[in-house]
Amino acid sequence: MNAAVRATVRVGIYTGAKVYFVHEGYQGLVDGGDNIKPATWESVSMMLQLGGTVIGSARCMDFKEKWGRLKAACNLVKLGITNLCVIGGDGSLTGANQFRTEWSELLADLIKQGKITAEEAKRSSHLNIVGMVGSIDNDFCGTDMTIGTDSALHRIIEVVDAITTTSFVSIMPDCVCMRVRVCVCVHLCAHVSVRACVCINIAVCPHSYLALVTALACGADWVFIPEMPPEDNWEEHLCKRLIAQRERGSRLNVIIMAEGAQDRKQKPITCDQVKNLVSKKLGFDTRSTILGHVQRGGTPSAFDRILGSRMGVEAVMALLEATPETPACVVSLSGNMAIRLPLMECVQVTKDVTVAMAEGRFEDAVNLRGKSFQNNWNTYKMLAHVNPPEVAPKIHPLSVLFSPSQSNINIAIVNVGAPCAGMNAAVRSAVRAGLIQGHQMLAIHDGFDGLANGQIEPITWAQVGGWTGKGGSNLGTKRNLPGKNIEQISLNIAKFNIHSLIIIGGFEAYLGGLELVTAREKYEELCIPMVVIPATVSNNVPGSDFSIGADTALNTITMTCDRIKQSAAGTKRRVFIIETMGGYCGYLATMAGLSSGADAAYIYEEPFHIHDLELNVVHLIEKMKTSVKRGLILRNSNANDNYTTQFLYNLYSEEGKGTFDCRMNILGHMQQGGTPTPFDRNFGTKMGAKSVLWLTDKLKESLFVSPGRIFANTPDSACVLGMKRRSLIFQPLTSLKEDTDFEHRIPKTEWWLKLRPILKILARYEAVEIDTSEVAAMEHIIKKTGEIKGGKI
Q1: Is residue 524 scored above 50 in pLDDT?
Q2: Pairing, β 703-706 against β 709-711
Q3: DSSP character for 389?
Q4: Partner residues linked to 689 by β-bridges
Q5: pTM over 0.85
Q6: Which residues are within 8 A (CB) of 304 and not within 5 positions of it... i.e. 6 or more apart?
Q7: Is 137 a catalytic residue?
Q8: Partner residues linked to 183 by β-bridges
Q9: pLDDT tier at 358 (50, 70, 90 boundaries)?
């Protein structure tokens, strides 16, 4: 929320508006006085890394009454405030819309009561409203993500990971289990045998995004969500599922429950009920953990900071462009775009979800939640609720390729390029999705070198257990391309009877895929379906807006910048020059600049010269005259051959003498390590599963050249699986060549470059133009009133 407040204040001031804080929510609006204060540029400094909201929030019963709204209207009129930006859930936004709808009536009543003059009423003849959804539940229809959801997922996954590690103990059953309830923490020490089961209750409102994504991100054995209750006799199915997992070697079972979980008859399913069922029927030592308010606290994630900043900018633009006839809108996220949608239509669809659940129309409830929720649910069902074949097919099949129980298809998986967090999640998902389809899954170790050297072996369901939360690459990975070993690779593809190939990695994976496709003319063995899954911290693979691993790296950089800035809190007058990874791609530097509040971010895609550096130095000298006596400069590793990080450090140190001193930090390989974030786990899981389903369809379309061999040589038989806006799509490798800058290893078009003006505006640079002319609509908003147009500042 603080990122949204900061952006709203600064963009408002930037455009010449006078901006006010309303402390304590609607209660502050009703009470007035010191609760409504002017905001300054400096008053929102050092807010990005703070959780909660620095201006306070409170539930207000007074605002629900007409007399309360009269007082609020009077306070706004006296201050000349005619634009209101509301950050909250659907209840807060509905209240704002009601306030706007009856504004003229409220003004008339205030004139009659003599509390305002006719002239004051004329100056405040209409009230513009814009909403931003701040809710950890992500239950507002009309936006892909709400402010706070990603941070809540970070808190949840941290707890789940901590609990999961309690299963990795010696045979001696000595363990600690944590139990957390709302507002009260009770630390329970217990002896837990290796046959342990943990039931985790995600304590949120009766909507299930957090529980569902957590289940995907941690590989939970079962998830209870109210939108899709379990089938009748779920108790027996659950027990069978847990037993099956133990028989496959699992040391721990994890069950995730959303608050509001229910059965098909709408009877509540409680955490204690599930705990007692597992304990008594299976004899498993079971512990329950109710997370409660821990989910609302902590430092906001990089994604939430950027989301709040983008929504704050869009909210101000919406208010500036509003007319008395403009309906109240809510700023939403559609893929990678910040858009505006009619507020009350989004609220209505949100309420329709609750109605559908109350009426037992559970499929409708899932559909109303949108495609993202549907995809998450379908992926989870496929990976968790379907039993894999008990007997794996042989590596060298001579039988018919497809049969009802097993396909006799061999799909190989290889990691290529630098390791990154989330790779293992993609491998796990692909392996299990393939086994469910009846395929034989093969693991290739150490990249294309391993494929050439025959480092290939079957990989089983149990082997990938627990991989979702592990960083790096368990299969091993190298940067070497297949070109010099192409003949040996083709021989091994034939030797191990590989029918299709999944390549997970960065730009090297993309280049390697292209080399394999080019070599098809000479080597028929390479005429197999193959898919490239982008996985790199650099986020530079053509064909995808995002790459697995980039979010984890971005959070690592953001948290490091927070600590570096904090180190200057006592010193004052200090500027930090920080170098990030990314090669020639400036994604990490730009997004980290937004999430950490940087004064500048130098990247290759936006050339800079000595004049620009001079302006930046002058900007920092002026900044040191304010109460904010610190600076943060980011530089992408290959931003400029001559203006190196050391050069920038020397320049700023020399020009800042007597005003500020400098420190230089090169973050290095710490950006590639660490535990994957919830986004990277979820993203990798969905990408891995989708790639296998696509390959299965492609194999069915391919020609059979001999028993056990297939032939696929069309351009669309070798694709990059990427996220474009809101969809996962497959694009032929060859078709992406035109959009690739091979010299600098980046796509020619990069969506995030449109966010760079926001970074400059929030750092207070003059004469910056920002364009939001993109248009989008959400498919599950029933009554579309046309596409929402953007504009410019």
Answers
A1: yes
A2: antiparallel
A3: P
A4: none
A5: yes
A6: 3, 147, 148, 149, 150, 151
A7: yes
A8: none
A9: confident
